[in-house]
Amino acid sequence: MKLFKNSQATFGIIYSGNAQAIDNHAVSEMALFIRRCEGGDIRVYPFKPTYEYENYMCIGADDDVLEQFGVRVPRETFTDDTVYILVKDNVVVLDGGKRGQLYAVYEFVERFMGVRFYLPEEMKAPKVKDLEIPDCEIVYTPKIRFRNLYSNDMRRDRDFCVRHRMNTENDPLNMENYGGSANWAKPDCHTTFQNLLPPEDPEYGFDKHPEYFSYIEAQGKRVARRHMDYGFPWGEGEICWSNPEVIEILTERVKQWVLNEPRMRIFSVTQNDYGTYCECPKCKELAYKHGKDGKPRWSAPIVYSVNQIARNIKAWQQTDERVKNREILLETFAYLYGKEPPVGMQVEDNVIIRNCVSFCWLHDTDDETCPYN
Ligand SMILES: [Zn+2]
Ligand SMILES: [Zn+2]
Q1: Closest ligand (CA of 301)
Q2: HSE-up of residue 64 (Cα within 13 Å, Cβ side)
Q3: Does 199 share its domain with 139?
Q4: pTM (2 d.p.)
Q5: Which of 22, 246, 322, 351 is deepest in the core (most CB within 10 A)?
Q6: Which of 149, 84, 58 is nearest to 157 (CA)?
């Protein structure tokens, strides 16, 4: 199909008669890229126009309209993120799940129109004089469900973030234009001392229960404190992940958090941003048991604990009507001393491991000349 001929669009856009915010956004994004690549304004319709176009582009169009083109979109097989692109005879179909339909627009303009999203203020939209697209069908669902890039460019520009198919903009509400977000409950991460089990907790804090906190071998004692005068997040120590009572407390606090945040889906059970961790006999045993080449993996006590909390949450969901139909996921880090995975340990399917990659901002992650890689 020739989508552009001599710098003229050969098509009109058809969208849904019941378009929601996300559908409107997908259409207006496409119209923007057409203006930038080709220069002209495009006409949009919620039905097949009586005026004959050479070609049509259907973005989330209604089934009865698609039928007129002999097309059926298998929406029943889609998740929120599924992308669907079909080019057939004189019609382009951009469709998908809730967010997937918007992603289909970005996939299409990147793949076929040469658009690139380099920086929030730097988009490449090459002038397109003639564009021929072969018939094709592209269907995919991103394998990574929780897509977050911890970069200022992403965090400060929601459009840039979504154009890169991230779904974890740090503003979980009012995201209708973008098909919602992954709904990641505040305070985001580093939650052990922040909101799950602070050392100054009146009931379970360090004064009453030092055994709930990290034994640091080099100091020969249990350690847990926050340097409040530096503000968040500096401090020392960690919870003792393997202590069964700690796992119970964390479970109850996650439950309360889930109830307090009815719109949220992802709850972070993550280590502090400090370099210290518990080396008590039980934590140590787990770290060595799931270590490699005789060396401990300190991720083991974390994953062991988060897995148990995740199983507790799953069991709770089966019995409590308030949370029965909610999707609840726990997130934990592969980070600092806990970066290497525990050998022979599987994570529960309601646990997300958030891989916090290299600290190097200069080299590609597979560049072996970088000392950090
Ligand atoms: Zn321990
Ligand atoms: Zn480097």
Answers
A1: 1
A2: 5
A3: no
A4: 0.81
A5: 246
A6: 149
